[in-house]
Amino acid sequence: GKLDGFPDLREAEDVIKKFRMTAAAKRQLFDLCLERANDSSRILGQLEVYFEEYARNTASTALQELLPRLMSGGDVPEEPLYRGGRSRSRSHNNRHEREHGRHDRGGARRGGRSPAGRDRSRSRPQYRNARRSPSGRR
Fold first, then answer.
1. pLDDT tens for each residue of 60-89
2. Hey, is 19 helix, strand or coil?
């Protein structure tokens, strides 16, 4: 956009300090404020609300996910871009899913089986064997 003057980055500094953002995220936020100088204050306000609600401890990561959308002129979404999590208690699981892929959960903890193997064994009714043999484990 066309600049009316150099944007005031103090508001961005406040967001960076409040959410303890990384150096990389700080640069990205400043770049965003420069790119969208005419509405940077509005965008920062939206980001602050979004971080409060969905990414209090992961604001740097959340900014990286939102950046392409924001740099191309879009607004901060009302809900996270990733599927699922609306509640804060699930934010760790959602972050884990984003970093490691949805089906990677529990692989190492469960003896390192592949997700497909885990799903197969879970879908097979295990109670059938227990009915046939009294000593069978469930």
1. 999 999 999 999 999 999 998 775 444 444
2. coil
CB atoms within 10 A of CB 38: 11
Provide the whole-model pTM.
0.57
Phi, psi (5° rounding) for residue 100? -120, 0
pLDDT in tens, 83-128: 544 444 444 555 555 555 555 445 455 455 545 545 454 555 555 5
Residues composing the chain: 138
| Cβ–Cβ < 8 Å for 39, 12 | no
- Give the C-alpha separation, 82 to 59, whole Å: 14
Angle at 42 between CA 46 and CA 92, to 5 degrees: 20
